[in-house]
# Entry
Amino acid sequence: MQTVFITGGTGYIGTRLIKALQNDANYRIQALVRKGSEKKLPAGCEIITGDALNAATYKECIAVPSIFIHLVGVAHPSPSKKEQFKQIDLVSIQEAVEAAIEKNILHFIYLSVSMYPTKVMRDFQEARAAGERLLLQSGLTTSFIRPWYVLGPGHWWPVLLKPFFWFAKLIPSKREAARQLDTVTIKQMINTLVHAVKNQPVNNTVYDVAKIKTFNL
# Structure
């Protein structure tokens, strides 16, 4: 049985991912959670109480060997949350990498973001890019998951922009931006993450928006 250690398991993506992995008896799920939030986790996973911003509170609990999935991040990212990106997104990945190195993690799966340059979400992208650099420097085998906006229950408003993306893809100068900043669905995200869990790469690999959109099974 393969152990999967997940941070951010109580979130929008995390709860759905845990349930998806629980459908496969080959996986044991360890989920990091803050004290008092245990009931937000799906039933059946192993609860690890700790602070994602402090590796010392949880790293000794990580089973060896494990796959590490890092989903922690500021909820509903916006340009006004610059400091939170530094204090939560960046610090949590710094701590996660420290824990992963110490525990000789087999495969690190990092929920990042599209790296196509934007002005409005530059601070968010810079925090995630810094996390990617840390992982590349660590020597850990890593899968980088790079969505832009994830459509799903409670997150449907960008559907209104779909005609603009379609039109932009017809314009050569706008095509790449439209491709990399397009929306993906929560189903595609979960399928991508499950695929990454089941297919450890030999070298680091990137799942960009276009690749995430292929996981429609």
Notes: Residues 79 and 121 are 6 Å apart (CA to CA). Residues 82-102 form the longest helix (21 residues).
